[in-house]
Amino acid sequence: MTAKPERTLAISGTFTAEPINDALEFWFERLKLPFALKHAPFNQVFQTLLDPASLFFGNQKGINTVILRWQDLGEGQQLEANASSLIETLGRRASQMKVPLVAVLCPCSPSFLASETAAELASRLDERLATEATKVSNLHLLTASTILELYPVSEIHDAVGERLGEIPFTADFFAAAGTCLVRKILGLTRPPYKVAAVDLDNTMWGGVVGEDGWEHVRLEPAHIGLQRFLLEQRSYGLLLAICSKNNEQDAWEVFERRPEMLLKKEYFAAARINWNPKSANLHAVAKELSLGSDSFIFLDDDSKECAEMRANAPEVLTVQVPKDGRELGQFLRHVWAFDRAKITAEDRKRNESYQQEIARTAEAKKANSLEDFIAALDLKVVIEPLRASMLARVAQLTQRTNQFNTTTLRRTEAELQSALDTGALHCITIAVTDRFGDYGNVGAVLYSFQSAALVVDSFLLSCRALGRGVEHEIIRYLGNEALKHHLEEVAIRFIASPKNTPALQFLDSLESTGESGGLYTRLFRIKADYASRLAYRPVSYTGIKPDEAQRAPNAENSQFAVIDYGEIATHLSKVAEIRREIREAKTSNTNLQVAGESTAPRNKTEARLAKMWAEVLQRPSVGIHDNFFELGGDSLRAVELLVKILESFDIPDLTLSALLEAPTVASFASTQNQRREVRCLVPLRETGSRPPLFCVPGGGGNVLSFRTLAMNLPEDQPFWALQAPGLDGSTPVEDAREIAALYLDEIRTVQPSGPYYLGGGSYGGVIAFEMAQQLVAQGEQVAMLALLDTYNLAYGRMIPRAKAMYCHARFFAQRAGANLNLGNVPLKQWPGHLRQLGRTATKLVGKILRMFVAAPENQSQPKPAGPALDLKGESNRAIDVLERVRDANMRAVERYTPQPYSGIITLFRASIRMNEPYQDEFLGWKPVAAGGIDIETVPGHHSGFDRRELGEALNRHLLRAQEQQRGLGPVREDESATVQSA
Known about the structure:
The two termini are about 60 Å apart. The protein has 38 helices and 27 strands. It is elongated. Helix 1 crosses helix 9 and helix 7 packs across helix 9. It is α/β, with parallel strands linked by helices. The chain is about 45% helix and about 15% strand. Helix 14 links the parallel strand 9 and strand 10. The strands form five sheets. The chain has an eight-stranded mixed β-sheet with strand order 18-20-19-21-22-23-24-27, sandwiched between helices. It has a seven-stranded mixed β-sheet with strand order 11-12-13-14-15-17-16, with helices on both faces. It has a five-stranded parallel β-sheet with strand order 2-1-3-4-5, with helices on both faces. The protein folds into five domains: about 180 residues, SGNH hydrolase (Rossmann fold, 3-Layer(aba) Sandwich), CATH 3.40.50; about 140 residues, HAD superfamily/HAD-like (Rossmann fold, 3-Layer(aba) Sandwich), CATH 3.40.50; about 160 residues, Gcn5-related N-acetyltransferase (GNAT) (Aminopeptidase, 3-Layer(aba) Sandwich); about 70 residues, Non-ribosomal Peptide Synthetase Peptidyl Carrier Protein, Chain A (Orthogonal Bundle), CATH 1.10.1200; about 250 residues, 3-Layer(aba) Sandwich (Rossmann fold), CATH 3.40.50.
């Protein structure tokens, strides 16, 4: 059973990020993580970061995630300016959020990185974002290099998916990114392990030193790799310990006498090398290091020793490493327990601190008494009000300090800053040094002033400073602070947890009166005068007993299930393994069988199709009612499946949209037996009580791009899309009027007469415009013509030539300015950069000249489209078809000159504008809009509207037009829309 979602993973992306859901949902279910997934509107990253009413700021318990590519942020200087602003915004907003903010940096496309200048810019931006993440404790970074290093993917980019639906990556990459994001989430939501305790024989080295001798144990590459890995973890703050059944002298000889050993004796914070049970030794090490044994990872190759540890120390994370050394490196990289959300300066100093502690312990054994030892330490305690630079450290202390923590209230940096800014809390920090070294910043106290008392909200002190009088010094400071404010008491709240018995023992050692607030809550009232004069007295810190830990509430750890990290590292460390598990989980969790029907093929056709489905989806078998897309099918796999079908079946007019209409084997077989006599009309929603909407997609002519828009319209609104001729492998059409006439013939098979509701996206809007013109000329009524960010490409021929030349000169200057950014280009790259600018300038000037010297449309001769493609005989044939049809559509639209239209044009403009020649608010349609233009601005850019916002706006205008047709009143003007008369 899936954990009840108590937290939210909120995602905002610069591209369509929803395909990452498959991996996230799989891991949430498998690991029983209580997260619900929510996506912000498409490509609204800045709005989501800045708007106080956005999804991110409403997320009070969970994690916020921005998934981005630099190239999605604009072009040239605009890209760099936008990226710089985004980096600054990420840092600033992360420090204000109550939950962590994770930035997932995805790779730019090969076409973008082909430019040396763009590649250099992307690299600089990567570095700047990494620097920002190190400065802001609440901002966490997951880079493309990390994703691909952990989970290599052969095919990263999906050019077809990007063109059809702003989905730039393959399902394999999304699986890798989703898995890495879950690893990051675990690092942010679970306390890190503090110690790795390792076995020696057949783990640290090959062989048994007691039998083979130090000179004959094997130090193979796998063993050296393990040591290198542990050294790296040690540099991140993980303590190392040894738990081995061996003769101690024999074991240490290997470290001392084998030069290949990377790990040295002094690198271990503690060791138990004897013949006692390893669980007993590990508990002894935990006691020596003053750490809970549940913060230990135990590594051993022996299954019996691992079983003994699991039985007698179940709180320890026991991981059995592979006996085959060739698998060890891959295995260790995928033991998620070693992951850390962020490495801090305090983490890197931890091993040094424990070495100092070992020296202190040795000194303590020589001292006559504890008082003499404390006196000999030459302890120096610095207590001061919180400095801004220490805010992150205090937040870390609230998250990590367990034993001497009076309330164990966890706070983020943003929550602390908010409480301090409002005056609800005050804060002091504690730094300690002695003659052995610097403890660093080891404590903090959060408190407030109330009517008669200084009330301590949280009193936190690292265990390495405990028992040396630091805690007494803090109480003296608080007593003096209370007296300074004429307060009589210092009141300290205490809330019991499984581990904070030491804090209770210290409070019990003070003279106080108190009151109980329940089974686990107390308030200690200490006279301010007594506190200000408190002298050091040794306190017996005995830690916590197991039965006390069982009785105390454990809200921290109960929210997550136990994770079998070894199983993940063994069987789910590769993308292929993860995707296979995702597909199987989808099959088991989804009712894919039609009631009362078998999923086995019923005839030879279904059997052949089922085999193809299975081969493309990399599954052992597929039922006839299994949905291609629900089983992990994406755009590239759809192309692959189409090719297989065309190779085996004689279906000359098959197109990619066939899978959208019939995504199961059974429905596909049935559809092909009963195909409509149409080439282009595709139902995205065939039924509904309202009049149908017919939409023409953009330059590629593929209806898959409208799938999300259809989903964002009400269920009672039928939606039909018109797929470009030529996608079935026949000859593409290069005349806009001919395409429009073909579309109208097919529309009439669904709706014989008007009123008609038409729409078109980008270049498709030009075809929709011509369809409306032809319908009006035939005496039909067009109730609505919706153009989705469509330009009238003939606008330059409709305005005075001087104005057109001025607009293009201005456009050329803007483009040149955006590209002529030599300040950010290394000097040695200037020649290549300038050559590229020259080529770009030549193309722009040539385009301008051709625009003004081109023959009129009725005299121009279309370029021959060439013969129809034989899809069965071409390599890369399906992608070739897409490219061929796109080029034909673009030529058709560029040659078309629209004539005045008597109806109203409803123009949906993207709010984010790129560099455009005319910078015209009507996108060039005013000269032909005899009936006026109704403008609606929708969030997003030309190739990526906010789908939800566009669906709502389109539905609003459809309702107006439909009500007008029913005679329910005149056209109503929205406040957001502007009707302009041409």
